[in-house]
């Protein structure tokens, strides 16, 4: 599993930032640079994505494998605990770890994710993940990423370029995504029954979390409803909720105002 680091390698204060389903650790570059004065910031590419290896058996792509990998990474970092920020899938990994007894998670930030997820949004995601895509040039790739990721709320063409470049690679005469199409197996064809079963397990883990939790929600998110977010403030660790206007699924922490939300929660800074 590949990971990048910012900040002093001997800093015992570690922030682990974990990306969403088809994304990469470089998504957090702006945030990591900002926080590197206080933290050793570690941003992995989850297995099957970015510069990490692909699994031989695609049926293993799922939360149990991802949580095991993150626990192994934390052990490698040689610290007793880490603070954790997870976007979408990365948040579910963090929730899965933080809900375990004696979890090595201090402060937890869940970015537009929680135990209850909207089925329509899960089905939307399942429709495009793993589809064979090849782009004639980088500009075409940027346009496609922008079309499927409009909820990220990025504001400039340069931001969309910075988001796309680490997630694609040149393959012969065309550009392709840096993820194993096999990751789609875990998100294909969700049903009301499978979604309800997953939700029950995730609520059990969420209710077991003992550390402080910040829930960041895109105000226009179709994956995490406002009702589900409010419920997360009323049970278990009683998360603090911050909603970001003009953003759907999910905020990307490219902008200073979004970074400031994270910095305040972790460091108490305004």
Please estimate the helix content: 25-40%
Helix count from the secondary structure assignment: 9
Question: Tally of extended strands?
Answer: 9
Instruction: Give the termini distance in whole angstroms.
Output: 35 Å
Sheet having the most strands: 7 strands, mixed
Which secondary-structure class do the elements indicate?
alpha/beta
Short structural summary:
With 270 residues, this protein is an alpha/beta fold. Helix content is 36%, strand content 17%.
Describe the model.
With 270 residues, the chain is of the alpha/beta class. Helix content is 36%, strand content 17%. It has 9 helices and 9 strands. The strands form 2 sheets. The chain has a 7-stranded mixed beta sheet, sandwiched between helices. The chain has a two-stranded antiparallel sheet with strand order 6-7. α2 (63-77) crosses α3 (89-98) and α5 packs across α6. The two termini are 35 Å apart. The model has no long low-confidence stretch (mean pLDDT 96).
